[in-house]
Amino acid sequence: MAWNEPGGSGKGNPKDPWGNNNRGNKNGGGNQPPDIDEVLKQLMDKVNGLFGKKGGGNGNNQGAGGNDGLGGLLVIAAIIGVGLLAFNSFYTLDEQERGVVLRTGQFSSIENPGLHWKIPVVDQVIPVNITKVREAEIKERMLTEDENIVEVELNVQYRVQDPQTFALRVEQPEVSLVSAAESALRHEVGSTAMDPILTTGRAALADAVKIRLQDYLDRYQTGIQLTNVNIKDARPPQQVKESFDDVQRAKQDKERFINDAEAYANAIVPEARGRAQRQLEEASAYKERIVARAQGEAARFENLLSEYKKAPQVTRERLYIEAVSEVYTNSSKVLVDVEGGNNMMYLPLDKIIQGMPSSQSKDQMSNSDMSTIADQVINEIRSRQNSSNSVRREGR
């Protein structure tokens, strides 16, 4: 049987969990539910007992009971509020974070990772991640030094170096970073020609932007440290891309022609220098040869002069024979004008040489052979002169 079912003895239901024994039921019936006000009054009595207060009396003092109920609710609300404040007074920082503590709105300290306590309402903690590498993307169309337009995509990677300045000095440090990066990029692009930006000068441009941007951030006191700055892409605007490609192809053709010309020059110039050096060496050798020959001829003439002084006639004939031998060496036929006659004497030297058993060819003749030929020619001339003189005498 349920505790609130009828059939009670009228002295209270023993199964009533509240133990009211039908108090508050003026009719004395056992089938009535317990009075809610009575339940709240008992609960408030227990709470007041915890704080050293007595109950509000029996049901005859209804006003006092109502006041006690309202005070109990306030006490409960105060307990719950104090519990919430105590719970919110504890906070935890992980290994990547540092806590910037503000006390009554002013900077107080920097907290390290771990479990910490703060004064409720008075203290405020701003957690700042100092190890995470953050990124910012910038894409701008800019004017170069040579008055060309390029589109540049910039990637900036950074982290927080000083949590205090990052959290307190600048209201929105990351927004300030983007604005400073745009300013630094425009300054460097405006000081650089277009070709290096599009080809081989991207790394140098990124380094220059990083240095200038870090200087801006330090002066703004943002507490940000740059880790890397990259030029992701640099290209001309889409509207002029076709004309730009034509210009680039023309420049490539120019570079190719220059390289071909330099290669040709590198091949020709050393060869020409070699030929010039060879001619200089040949001229030097010719000079030395001529000077040596002249010196030898001079020495030979001096020696010959001394011999001539000793025997003029013999030396004269010897010189004559040597001269004739030298002339006859380069000629195979000789015409001799006969003194006192009208005809020319013809001497076939090639036939004479062929008739000599000791000589086989002109290149193999020795000095003795040449002397023999000269003697034969002289004897032939003398004999013909003698015969010519005898013919003249007979005619007279």
TrEMBL record:
Coarse class of the protein's main subcellular location: membrane
GO CC annotation, single: membrane
SMART domains per the UniProt record, alphabetical: PHB
Band domain ranges (all copies): 88-248
One Pfam match: HflK_N
SUPFAM superfamilies with a match to the protein in the record: Band 7/SPFH domain
CDD domains: SPFH_HflK
Protein origin, superkingdom: Bacteria
Region Disordered, annotated ranges: 1-36
Family: Belongs to the band 7/mec-2 family. HflK subfamily.
Protein name: Protein HflK
Organism whose genome encodes this protein: Thalassolituus oleivorans MIL-1
